[in-house]
Specification:
single chain; alpha+beta; 9 helices
């Protein structure tokens, strides 16, 4: 018979371990258990968290799950789903605050982290744009195009129009590959050239084009494609 978490030795309970050693010391399942607070009949919060990680395959996939998908899982009701969704959104907003700090983007990694949080694990391709001022501070982030990435679905003129509307001096664009493979395709390279040329006509610089998949997003600028 499984013991309830409150019956575990204090040094083994997730919340007590977090307070004593910091959140980085906890495994994924333990962190999820802190958010879930309770488990289901026959499974404590840690056991339930482990089951969720197996069910969804990763923390990112769990936190990006739609209500329709998540609420089909035993024990993950509306309250628990809302707790997880709120935690994920707070993490994304914290990243955006980092990008929007007074000194602007410190490195391509800052943008890559935020774009991965926003676009990874989405079930279809989404093309998004970060609009930046002259100091590379974030003015706005917009998801602009949805579906298959090709010439019919991504329109450079619309990116130019939104850049002018925001008064942007530079942009960073990104899209996800739901397959998880973040290698740039011929269409990705062609689109990057089109965007760079179109934005250049109105003195807006294309700083980078990230492809978000599994692992670290791929930067086309670092690959010399800009």
């Amino acid at each position: 018979m499984n013991l309830a978490i409150q019956d575990w030795p204090a040094r083994e309970r997730p919340r007590e371990r977090l307070l004593a050693h910091g959140s980085a010391a906890l495994a994924d399942a333990e962190l999820l258990a802190v958010l879930l607070r309770t488990g289901t009949r026959g499974a404590d919060a840690v056991a339930m968290a482990r089951e969720l990680l197996v069910e969804f395959g990763s923390v990112g996939a769990l936190l990006a799950a739609t209500p329709e998908r998540a609420l089909k899982v035993r024990g993950l009701g509306h309250a628990k789903y809302c707790q997880l969704a709120a935690a994920a959104e707070l993490a994304r907003r914290a990243l955006l605050e980092t990008l929007n700090r007074a000194e602007g983007l410190a490195s391509p990694g800052d943008a890559a982290d935020y774009l991965k949080a926003k676009l990874s694990h989405l079930p279809r391709e989404v093309f998004a744009v970060m609009f930046l001022d002259t100091r590379h501070r974030v003015i706005a982030f917009e998801e602009m195009f949805f579906g298959t990435l090709d010439g019919a679905s991504v329109h450079p003129r619309e990116v130019v129009r939104r850049a002018l509307a925001h008064g942007a001096a530079a942009v960073i664009v990104a899209h996800n590959h739901p397959s998880g493979v973040a290698e740039p395709s011929a269409a990705d390279r062609h689109l990057t050239r089109q965007l760079s040329q179109a934005l250049g006509l109105v003195d807006v610089r294309l700083l980078d084009h990230f492809i978000v998949g599994d692992g670290t997003p791929t930067s086309l600028a670092q690959l010399g494609m800009l």
